[in-house]
Amino acid sequence: MLTHDAALAWLARWDRQQAGYLPDREERFTALIDAMEVLDRPDPLVIDLGCGPGSLSARLVERLPKARVIAVDADPLLLGLGRAAYPHLTFVAADLRTPGWTATLGLDRPADAAVSTTALHWISPPDLRAMYCELASVLRPGGLLLNGDHLDSDDVTPGLARLERAIHDTQTERVFAGDHPEDWRAWWDAVAADPDLSALNAERTTAGADHRGSESNLLSHHVTALREAGFSETGTLWQRGNNRLLCAIR
Ligand SMILES: C[S@@+](CC[C@H](N)C(=O)[O-])C[C@H]1O[C@@H](n2cnc3c(N)ncnc32)[C@H](O)[C@@H]1O
């Protein structure tokens, strides 16, 4: 059986694994929550898109205890870890590529914000357009989309895009050259070997949650899709290399 403490230990290991690829992960979480803090209400209703085991949601609620977060993901194992580690959060199983996904969220009013970290690059540009359109229909006017991810600009400013990627790659190489953190594959292999996670693992296989990432993650795809979905302003709130926090106002 998966206990609360065991889930917390798995999540600490998840954080170390993710930070290997994203040395600025905590700084980016902080920049995102800073934006939520200055939004015009202390008790925002927030949707966390591709929440995984709830890393961002948990940090958000820790800093803004009156916030109500609905954390959405398609992976039963990561959701199971999140539910066991953070019983105070609301997790919903949904695939953001499936039309009607917002109907599963149980929203009782328009949301004040949708947030996401290291997740939307898994979604292809056509699915992303549909996802943002549906999202816009449940966000209040003036609500925010805050997306922290690697976002490239090769189609508009290729020289800058190369520079931004090189900054990120150098930073990551430095991390992996030091005290080598566990990588993504090794983390999943370790999860698969834990008998306490076997039921969740089995669900994962049948749910087909082992998504393949989109080949590129262009900033322009997001900006165009957000504009088409009715968001009025878009811009970068924080950046290190190609790692950005994209903000859009509904
Ligand atoms: C690298 S993890 C990031 C998790 C978390 N946001 C964090 O920062 O630690 C990417 C997450 O996106 C989720 N994801 C990918 N495609 C998805 C989809 N179509 N619908 C819902 N979740 C998806 C994956 O299941 C995974 O949990």
Summarize the structure in words.
This protein has a single domain, classed as Rossmann fold. It is globular and about 50 Å long. It is of the alpha/beta class. Helices cover 44% and strands 20% of the residues. The structure holds S-adenosylmethionine. S-adenosylmethionine binds next to helix 3.
- Order of secondary-structure elements: HHEHEHEEHEHHHHEE
Distance between the terminal alpha carbons, to the nearest Å?
A: 43 Å
- CATH architecture label: 3-Layer(aba) Sandwich
Number of strands: 7
Structural class: alpha/beta
Principal-axes geometry comes out as globular
What value does the Rg take, in angstroms? 18 Å
Strand content: 15-25%
Draw up the topology in text:
Layout: H1 4-21, H2 25-37, E1 45-49, H3 55-63, E2 68-73, H4 76-85, E3 90-93, E4 111-117, H5 125-136, E5 139-150, H6 158-177, H7 184-192, H8 198-207, H9 219-228, E6 233-240, E7 243-249
Parallel strand pairs: 1-2, 1-4, 2-3, 4-5
Antiparallel strand pairs: 5-7, 6-7
Helix pairs in contact: 1-4, 5-9
The structure holds S-adenosylmethionine.
What is the gist of this entry?
The protein is of the alpha/beta class. Helices cover 44% and strands 20% of the residues. The chain starts with a helix and ends with a strand.
Which tags fit this structure?
Rossmann fold, 44% helix, binds S-adenosylmethionine, 250 residues, single chain, alpha/beta, 9 helices, seven-stranded mixed beta sheet
